[in-house]
Amino acid sequence: MSKLWYKKPADIWEEALPIGNGRMGGMIYGTVESEHIQLNEDSVWYGAYVDRNNPDALKNLPKIRELIKNGQIPEAEELMVYALSGIPQSQKPYQSLGDLTLRFKGMEGHKSDYIRCLSLDHGLHTMEVKVEGTTYRRETFLSAVDDVMVMRITSSESHKISFSALLTRERFYDSVVGLGADSIMLDGNLGKGGLDFAMMLRAKVDGGTCQVIGEHIVVKDADSVTLLFTAGTSFRFNNLKESLKDILDKAAKRSYEELKSRHIKDYTTLYNRVRFELDGIASYDELTTAERLEKAKDGEVDLGLSKLYFDYGRYLLISCSREGSLPANLQGIWNKDMSPAWDSKYTININTQMNYWPAEVCNLSECHMPLFDLIKRMVPNGRKTARTMYNCRGFVAHHNTDIWGDTAVQDHWIPSSYWVLGAAWLCTHQWTHYEYSKDEEFLRKSFPIMREAALFFLDFLIEDKGYLKVCPSVSPENIYILPSGVQGAVTMGATMDNQILRDLFTQCIKAAKILGVSDELNEQIKEALEKLQPTQIGSRGNIMEWAEDYDEAEPGHRHISHLYGLHPSSQITMDETPKLAKAARQTLEQRLSQGGGHTGWSRAWIINLYAKLWDGEEAYKNLEALISKSTLANMFDNHPPFQIDGNFGGTAAIAHMLVQSTDNRVVLLPALPKAWKDGSIKGLCIHGAAEISMEWKEHQLSMCEIRAKHKLNTNLIYKEEKYEISLEAGERFIL
Fold first, then answer.
1. Which domain holds residue 169?
2. Packing angle between helix 440-460 and helix 520-530, nearest 10 degrees?
């Protein structure tokens, strides 16, 4: 059984355990005398959409470009802050919804046998404790199918359950009211012109009494209680309060066991698709998660934490990104603050994309859908930004967006704010989904969006030294040093820009061929693709980050943007571009020797990069570092502070250590570390709409099965062996 478990309650938020159903999230502390659940709902974003595009951008763009061409970088950067920044400078922040507090009576006596557990196999949180000989148990889950959080409170003796329930919010809410004898509601608004929000709690009591007194639900002497909670905003519900009440009414008609059964069936339909096993890890499960993580900090990272980390990442993605929800933000859906770090937005120069790296390979394709919905919302805003700021066709986004799909520049921070590749990178995810699903109808709907992202760059790119280059741009979020000693971030033709555009243009061309589209725009994209500067190797044998071979102000920088071509892209591979792969390894070694990987998500990226270099030992070494140095007590990734992208990046990396695929080949166990001597993986996905399962013994592949969901033609590679595969939908290949 895969689980997180502890022998004491959480003292702080970073020790609480997460539950979620895509659009709602809860952090459960598991305290005995007063339970605390911090609550989130995915659309609780402050404020209304504002057109923030800077009206002075277009008239100053030629001057900015001229300054960059002339090497007058400080002057260019100063003018960019004035002329390109959004007005106002910031998008809208995501906020905590509030808190549920349960204060119990009769729990003050001697306590023993305490345990709290998050079952990843069932998506179920439990807390159990014995107080003065009576055993109390709470089971909690967030159901996607019934759209409610459910908590079942029981005791081993009758009439022992008495408590009060209170909904609160740190600030900015309007009222708390009773709804009959068993329910309460807290409601408010999210600022001028913003959304309305509400949350409701209902108690179903067996035995004893229940009443609403003031803003509390008060339960006395019950045998058992089922609490039902739901929340929402006017982003999703036109008749908010009536809709939430209807959700509770429908859930209340079902028994607890029925609600639980429906939740487990829905959750496990996704979670059980993949199963990762390593031999010899059962004994580690006897230690609490806290004990295992403490040992890891002391250098004893146990083998079973690889499996637990992988399973937890899949659990988290299922819990914070479901069809119909908003996509996972910087903290997934679990944010405790009214003013969180980086506003807990969508940071689209790596972090949002990393959240979805495991979606396709880990057989959670449906969980990818919320990201595509967000891209659609960005298109109209991105068209206006493209036209207003740059006089370009198509659509563009910079390095951040929010619930409204805002595409204007965020912040005044030169190393990131003025980067124009955000939408382009996001659109590559649409192609990735097609590669894994072969869903031609999805591609047909996504193709116009992909082409609009490409169209922007046909207008925006400028010619320099025979190449088409992005100008102005940055290499997120790094700073170079000019030969004169002047430091700068703004540039033209950064390596990452070229790599992202090479992917986007190539994908548009491939999609056009699949969909039978042959037009002038397609030809223009082909021509632009040929004029992108190739990835270059610098004087130190590394991949060059900029068009010129500059030194870095921070040689150990957390962003490894110029290795986008290695991962998440496959422009650099061990078998097809060995010289570039060697240079990529040199780049990694240089970064790590200067302190790179010091943030959780960056370390996760590094694991993926070493996996793509087919280096299982370095990948595993960095996985151990991710667990020992950048993992909080509840196994959330630590930037610091908490960011969920490290969890998702680490999960994807484990999958890529076991299998890698492109449109023409599948590589088996490319980065299998010595530590994973015997094991198996079931249900991972590969390009071409197929599932793969493998077993290995003594580090040698002992079984491989591929099941095609679509016509599949590919090459299977294991070490020096190569097999050509041709399968029809429904057929299997067994090695």
1. 3-45+97-275
2. 60
